[in-house]
Specification:
The complex is a heterodimer of chains A (725) and B (265). By secondary structure, chain A is an alpha/beta fold. Chain A is built from 19 helices and 19 strands. Helix content of chain B is 71%, strand content 0%. Chain B is elongated, with a radius of gyration of 28 Å. Classes of the chains: A alpha/beta (725), B mainly alpha (265).
Chain lengths: 725, 265
């Protein structure tokens, strides 16, 4: 709660009236003095306007002659008492009534409330703000915090009303989620003011509701499901394979081998050919499709709602639903550079729902990077924390002492390795500080020497003492002096290099305050224990990761640097190739006859480390399984051409684009970099495609204009290929 | 001075009612000042008040109060300067009560009028983080902290709001009168003048009352503290008590971890 400018003005004037009325004598005396000065400077004609010659003012301005001005006291007292009453009422309301606010939220579709949302569909959000206190709030403005990443249709997120126990405030608006993932409603921002606008309070009423946004429903050809197509699901085994099995349809005839069951002998054919012939039947094993979904940092990067992972999840969800509609089995393997989660193939409805939930959770993952700049994260996270957790960020509760800046930042904990210039600067500062120390020590030595000479010669002479009265050997003095310098050197240099800049830098002090307050909140929310706060203040990397976790939990986007100080790409995640290869081998080991492995993985940045994966794919192919690779593509980068262009042609294209940009007056260098980046990505994609093409494995681009039906058609073709075998 | 544009001026009943109340209060104020012999000068605060009502000027009320205070002080000054004596204070004088009531009504109604037509909340400098991010994602990043002024909807004005305010006017005026009467009966027991003694007494009363109310509100706040707030408070206390030891240990741990990682790399 705080007093607005309007309130301050009113309070000051009411008090001024009251005090002026009470201390009438000094006020009038001061006024007389001022008037005397003014009137003496003015021509006599002007002063006569008041019916009083200017000469009388000087005589009258004498202290002690006047008394109070009662009417001013009366006005001041009335206004001040009223103001105090309003303050008391508002304070009670803000401390008691605001804490009794509760929020009911529901998301509805046309049939009623829902627990999960579907991407691409419109839902209606209904919020009800209730007051569970006998006090009433005469004016409240409420605004629901709309989750980031959803599309708001129309308005209705804000409303205002008087709020009472039987007078709830309602909000209703419509949303649409463009892609799968999770959305989180944090709560409602409530602003309270008195009717005059003297006082103001802003609180956030938490009401956390998290919803999964499931990917778009699609049928077996990738079209959104609008109506029920079949009353009866096809039986298992609809995909009979042209491979020997235990089915009922004849596949082929071959010569009898010892051990073949007699009932499979084709007697008529055997009689015609003069030798025993055996019938082979088709296999009725259904297709088992295992989706390997890359969830590493490399696919989490991108503009909100357009990250490659969202597209991969869309494809995976469409395939899952398409397989489920024809009763194929679908499994899922989520992997990144650290862990692998495997869900065995199944076909039940519960299994499909589980897969969709996991895919939605995977789509909401945010990139994490420990070496992100603390300042950049603070600039995003602190305003959000203050807005969402105002009571925990209150400076009276979550204090940031003035001496805090002395302890921060800790140079040893900087996340990135120091650059050459920073090292030079570091040693230069140390050198200058050392030089200053030596200069000061030299000056001090001169003083000490003079003092020593005075103590040993002049002082005894002046005091009438014998010349050898003070017997301090010079070398002892020098040694003590040098020892003192040794002890003082490190603190002095540290103070000059670290302490002084901190004392002079308001920005650093502000960052220190922000960091402490946010660290306290994070330590509490993430249950880091008693030493969590101190640890977050010291460890930049951990603090950075915790802030990113906090932002990711609330689905607040933040920007991460793609390259480190040495120019290395941070999000290649090369460890995922080994993980994927191991997971693929494991799936092959547990697989049956008829497996389809769909690798939804970003290999663009690791095209030179594909060997383990290629080896695993070879094993899969040797076991007569099928493999398809779907590679995500960064948003905003032109798609690769069907054939790999030669390098000279690519360079010519980039130069032409650069010239075009120059003629338009755009930043040439930026476009050149973009062109080179595009060129590199195209080359990487074709390299990956070539590597897998040698094994006969198709590689497609997930971010192309090809819709999901095209990818499904490719899968169908694979089934057809299998039939032709 | 802020002026009201035609598109955000709802010609609604509450606005009209508050405007009329302000004008009526100004008329009474004019009469009260004229009755004190301030005829040509009484037009100054009245004109200021009228300008404030018509143009929704935020500073109208403070300037009106200052002007009236100055005029009253000037009257007393001129009375004494010309050799006269200030009239003896009589409690419950109609002209005093009318003057006080008119100022009170004008201030309250004008501020409520501003809330309905200009802004009820102070200007928000900081833009919402989610809003910023959304706008950046849409390709139109905000260039700066745009003004966000919110007026109070006239629909939220209850039927008895104005009536209650007008009914409460005599109450506040009488409370002011009562306090002043009580103060007037206090005489100095020390070697200071009665006027100064009353001022000190008032300051002590106000200060002490303020501290008591603050203490009560602080107690209420602590007793209503949520579990998270209490945990944060304890965590803060614990950190403040052990920060030096924690800093040493954590620095050592962090350095060790970084060295270990560097060796691994």
């Amino acid at each position: 709660m705080y007093l607005t400018g309007r309130g301050w003005w009113f309070l000051l004037i009411a008090l001024a009236l009251l005090v002026t009325g009470l201390i009438g004598s000094p006020a009038l005396y001061t006024m007389g003095m001022i008037t005397e000065v003014v009137f003496e400077a003015l021509p006599p004609r002007v002063s006569e306007v008041f019916g009083l010659p200017a000469s009388q003012f000087g005589r009258a301005a004498t202290p002690g002659r006047y008394t109070q001005v009662p009417v001013l006291v009366l006005v001041g007292l009335s206004l001040f008492t009223w103001f105090c009453w309003e303050w008391l009422l508002f304070a009670l309301r803000s401390r008691i009534a605001l804490r009794s606010l509760a929020v009911d939220r529901g998301v509805h579709d046309e049939r009623g409330p829902v627990d999960n949302l579907w991407a691409g569909r419109v839902f209606r959000v209904r919020v009800r703000l209730r007051l569970e206190s006998a006090l009433t709030l005469p004016f409240v403005a409420a605004a629901d915090r709309v989750p980031f990443g959803i599309e708001l249709i129309g308005d209705g997120t804000r409303s205002e009303a008087a709020l009472g126990q039987d007078q709830p405030l309602g909000l209703e608006y419509r949303i649409r989620c463009p892609s799968g993932g999770r959305i989180r409603f944090d709560g409602v921002l409530v602003r309270l003011a008195d009717l005059q606008g003297f006082f103001y309070q802003s609180v956030f009423v938490p009401s956390v509701s998290e919803y999964r946004v499931l990917p778009v429903l699609a049928d077996e050809i990738g079209r959104p499901a609008t109506r029920k197509r079949h009353n009866l699901l096809p039986p298992p085994g609809i995909h009979r394979l042209r491979q020997p099995g235990s089915g009922s349809e004849l596949l082929d005839l071959r010569d009898y081998r010892s051990g073949d069951p007699p009932k499979t002998i084709a007697w008529k054919v055997s009689a015609r050919r003069g030798r025993l012939i055996t019938k082979e039947f088709e296999s009725e094993v259904p297709v088992r499709c295992t989706l390997f979904l890359d969830t590493s940092n490399s696919v989490r990067l991108g503009p909100p709602g357009k990250v490659p992972l969202a597209r991969l999840v869309e494809i995976a969800a469409a395939l899952t639903q398409a397989n489920a509609s024809i009763r194929d089995l679908t499994g899922l393997c989520l992997f990144d550079e650290k862990k692998v989660t495997i869900i065995r193939p199944a076909r039940t409805a519960r299994h499909v729902a589980d897969l969709l939930n996991r895919l939605a959770d995977a789509a909401s993952l945010a990139p994490r990077y420990g070496n992100e700049s603390v300042e950049a994260l603070l600039n995003v996270a602190l305003p959000f924390a203050e807005e969402t957790y105002p009571e925990l960020m209150d400076s009276t509760l979550n204090r940031a002492p003035f001496w805090l800046a002395r302890d921060w930042p800790v140079r040893a904990q900087l996340g990135e390795p120091p650059s050459r210039w920073s090292r030079v600067r570091y040693w230069l500062a140390r050198g200058l500080a050392s030089g200053l120390f030596i200069a000061l020590a030299g000056l001090e030595w001169l003083v000490v020497r003079d003092l020593y000479e005075y103590a040993t010669t002049d002082f005894p002479r002046q005091m009438g003492l014998p010349p050898d009265y003070v017997q301090i050997p010079g070398p002892v003095i020098a040694q003590v002096y040098l020892l003192g310098l040794l002890f003082l050197y490190v603190p002095f240099v540290r103070f000059v290099c670290d302490g002084l800049p901190l004392l002079l830098s308001a920005r650093r002090r502000r960052l220190a305050r922000w960091r402490k307050r946010l660290a306290a909140l994070l330590a509490l929310r993430h249950r880091l224990g008693p030493r969590g706060l101190g640890f977050l203040l010291e460890d930049n990397e951990r603090f950075s990761l915790e802030v990113q976790r906090f932002l990711a939990e609330h689905h607040i986007p933040y920007q991460l640097p793609l390259y480190d100080a040495r120019g290395h790409y941070q999000f290649a995640a090369p460890g995922k190739v080994d993980r994927l290869a191991r997971a693929l081998l494991q799936a092959i080991g547990k697989g049956h006859d008829n497996e389809l492995f769909l690798l939804l993985v970003d290999l663009l940045e690791v095209s030179d480390r594909l060997e383990p994966l290629l080896a695993a794919v070879r094993v899969a192919l040797a076991r007569h399984h099928q493999v398809v690779v779907i590679c995500p593509w960064p948003a905003g980068v032109p798609l690769p051409p069907a054939r790999a262009p030669d390098e000279s042609q690519q360079l010519a294209t980039v130069l032409a684009a650069s010239e075009q940009a120059h003629s338009r007056g755009l930043a040439e260098v930026r476009l050149l970099i973009q062109g080179l980046l595009t060129q590199r990505l195209h080359a990487e994609f074709h390299r990956v495609r070539r590597a897998f093409a040698r094994l006969g494995v198709p590689v497609t681009n997930a971010m192309s204009d090809e819709p999901i039906p095209l990818i499904l058609e490719r899968v169908e073709r694979l089934r057809g290929l299998r039939r032709r075998r | 001075m802020s002026t009201l544009s035609s598109d955000n001026a709802p010609a609604s009943a509450p606005v009209r009612t508050y405007t009329l109340a302000c004008v009526a209060a100004l008329a009474i104020l004019l009469m009260a000042l004229v009755s004190r012999g301030l005829w040509p000068w009484a037009l100054l605060p009245t004109t200021l008040g009228l300008v404030g009502v018509t143009t929704r000027w935020r500073l109208a009320t403070p300037l009106l109060l200052i002007t009236v205070g100055f005029l009253l002080l000037l009257t007393a000054f001129l009375t004494v300067e010309t050799g006269g004596m200030l009239p003896r204070f009589h409690p419950f004088q109609l002209s005093d009560l009318l003057l006080c009531g008119a100022l009170f009504v004008y201030a309250a109604c004008h501020y409520r009028l501003l809330g309905l037509t200009v802004s009820i909340f102070p200007r928000e400098v900081r833009r919402s983080v989610t809003e910023q991010a959304r706008q950046q994602a849409l390709g139109s990043p905000p260039k700066g902290p745009g003004p966000r002024l919110q007026t109070r909807s006239p629909l939220t004005v209850s039927a008895n709001e104005v009536g209650l305010l007008l009914v409460s006017v005599p109450l506040w005026v009488l409370i002011g009168q009562g306090v002043w009467l009580w103060l007037g009966r206090q005489h100095s027991a020390f070697s200071v003048s009665d006027d100064f003694y009353r001022l000190i007494l008032l300051v002590w009363l106000l200060g002490f009352g303020f501290l008591v109310v603050l203490a009560v509100l602080g107690y209420v706040r602590r007793s209503l503290m949520s579990r998270d707030e209490a945990a944060l408070y304890l965590q803060d206390v614990q950190w403040l008590e052990t920060r030096a030891e924690q800093r040493l240990i954590n620095r050592w741990l962090t350095k060790t971890r970084r060295r270990g990682r560097a060796k691994e790399e």
